[in-house]
Structures are given as C-alpha cells and as structure tokens.
Amino acid sequence: MRFASTRNKSTIVGFAHAILxxxxxDGGLYVPCNTEDMRRWILYTDEKTSFTSIAGALTSxxxxxxxxxxxxxxxATKAFPFSPQLRKLDDTHFMLExxxxxxxxxxxxxxxxxxxxxxxxxxxxxxxxxxxxxxxxEFGAVLAHExxxxxxxxxxxxxxxxxxxxxxxxxxxxxxxxxYPVEVDGDENDCRAFVxxxxxxxxxxxxxxxxxxxxxxxxxxxxQTFFYPFAFSRLKxxxxxxxxxxxxxxxxxxxxxxxxxxxxxxxxxxxxxxxxEALFANDVGDCVLLNESYQRMNADPAEPSNIERLEEVxxxxxxxxxxxxxxxxxxxxxxxxxxxxxxxxxxxxxxxHTGRAYAAACKHAKMLAEDDxxxxxxxxxxxxxxxxxxxxxxxxxxxIPEHIAASVQRVAVKKPLVKSIxxxxxxxxxxxxx
Length: 434
Fold this sequence. Notes:
Blueprint: E1 3-5, E2 8-13, H1 15-20, E3 30-32, H2 39-44, H3 51-63, H4 69-79, E4 85-88, E5 93-97, H5 107-125, E6 129-134, H6 139-147, E7 153-160, E8 179-184, H7 188-200, H8 202-208, E9 210-211, H9 218-221, H10 227-235, E10 243-246, H11 253-263, E11 270-274, E12 279-281, E13 287-289, H12 307-316, H13 318-324, E14 325-328, H14 332-346, H15 352-362, H16 365-370, E15 374-379, H17 387-394, H18 402-408, H19 421-432
Parallel strand pairs: 5-15, 6-7, 6-9, 7-8, 10-11, 10-15, 11-14
Antiparallel strand pairs: 1-2, 1-3, 4-5, 12-13
C-alpha cells in the first residue's frame, strides 16, 4: 500500500516514510492511495481468530510491498499481547471494549502498534527516531510502557507544570530510560504551542528525526482499522441482519478507521455518532460534513483532527456519507440518561464517551428494528478513568485497579521548568546525542 497527501495526490510515499516523516510538506495528512480487497479473508475469520492474527493479516495487506509477511506478523505479535473484548448486552446491542491494555486507555492499541512498527523499521535501517508529544494524564504512561526496552526510539513529552502522570523513575532519560518528561511553565495550550513551533522548523525536525505518536501519524491511525474486523469475527455467527457501530467521534479517527475497514470489504452498514459542529445532519436528515478546506490549517502535530481525511473519503463518494454516517444531536441530559440506562439495564459502568455512543444508537432504534440490525457500541477507555463522573451519574463507586491508578498517578520530575522554545530545542538535541 502506498500513501498520498490529502492535498497533493502526486506526493506518494511508502509506509516507512509515512510514519517516520508523518506530515507532508504541503500541510496535509497521509491517506492510503489504494486498499486491498480482504473480502475472502474477512469472511473466513471467526471467534477463534485472535486479534493478533487479524492485526498481522491487515499489516501484511498494508505494507506487503515493503516488508515480508513474517515481519508483518512479528510487528503485530510484539504490539499486541492484549486484545479488545466484545461483550453481549442483549440480542441487539454489543459492546466493544478497547480498554484491556496496560493503561486502560484506548490509545494503548495505537501507540503499541506505532512503536512496534517504528522499532522494526529503524532496526532494519540501523536508524533512530524521537517522538515529540504533548502529554496529558495517562498518555505518558502509555508511551513510557511501549518504549521500555526499545533500542531505536526515544520520546520527549511536554507537560504543564505538576502534571506528569504515570511515568516510572526507571523510564526517565537521566536514569537510562527512553522518555524525557519536560514540565513547561504554563498550561496545556503553551505545551501545544511549543510542539507546533518545533515542527514548524522542518530542518530541525529532519536533523533530530522527530515524529509524533497521535493520529496525525498514519501509523497511529491504521491499527484502529483492526477493531472492526475483530468485532465482525465475533458477531458473524451471532447476528443475521445489518451491523452498525456507535461511537463518540473524538477527533474522528475511529470513524475514518471504520470507513477504511469498509473499503477492505468489511460488512458493515453504518455509524451512529453524536453530531459535532463539523459533522451533523441537515434538515432532511442527511449527513453533512462542513467543508472548511478553504481555511484549513496545516496538519497539527499537537492536537490532531481527521476531518481532512473524512473529506478525502467523501469527496470520492458523496453518497457514502449520506448512507454510512448517521449523526444525531444530543443534550447533556440525554447522555447522562444513557449512562444511567447502561448501568441499570446492563450493569455496565460507562464513561461519558460511551454514554454518547449508546445514546446515538438509541436514537436509531427504529432503524435497527426495521433492518433486523445489531449495533456495536465502542467503549474506548476503562470506566475507572472516569470514576468521579460515573459516581455522580449512577451513584456507583468503582474500585480502581492498580494498573489504572498507576497510569494516572502524578509523579515528580524534579527538573527546572522549561520557559522557552530554545530550552526545549536544547533538551531534544542533547537527548538525541546520548
């Protein structure tokens, strides 16, 4: 599979280039130029097909022109000693839980895969790379966990003062680890501004081999396409009608990943999601994607959005947007009521994002009944990460597992605060030269 920029289809690169140099110079985002027809393979999967096998097969489809099937399988095996879980709620509703990784956060999957790909590629090239990221809450723990033992990848994570979470002392660069937490004398917006300024200097980025670990990087996005074939492999013998997915849109990464899965010939009928300012239903109920391309900023290394990737998909097939995406307006009260219903009806403790997904599915109950359909609700993060909200809405107090508590525990860095972009640049250069 080759990749092109959303803004210039003649900018075509391979997988290794796309994840190491993840932002095209034209300011766009990398997207697949073509997709593999995986229909026969998908239809032969079943409940015995492991998530690792699904990841390995799709990885081979993505990058078979660059790497052998053995290497693709090795990437998937290294990335995923953990798996999503599909939970049956009733004959119509299922829940796909993405929080069974080491931190309880859905990002475990994307970052584990990206780091496994990077380490494999860099080992083969006898090269190195550095991730530069804004860290918030459990993100630092996710990244630190995946960088342990890696020989070719380091990371600098930029955090507001006093908000470094989940990173063990053994992971600190000055203790021999692969991660350098930087505390900024400011808030999260200041951290993002620093990262944007660094990536604006393309020569500095190239010299220091910088990349990102959010969905601006196509290598972070592609593993999210694995979720849908996995769910289908568990559903195919249980349901006989249409299959829909309900999810909170976030930065639209899971939506675009689902659409890529459909392109691989995955049987699915559409997505239910809460409406946003950019993706909503018009007066006749058709999905509308607000076209802001005339004022679109360059790809953001600090706060990604996949709207431009959605535009690229829908520009090729506008009818698909109307027939696949079903956004609904939701109030805060409707979301809270959905969380209560999940708890009372199914004994599920759900965070607000899962509540939004379930509420969107409930709005389309009539469509499901008419089509003899089923819906898979995407639960991104462990409920314990939203324990206060769940207690407020349901009255249920959660026991927080030890690994979840560790991933959000604040830690002391005991290094001087970074107050300028030059100080951050110096840290990156010095860490790279170790």
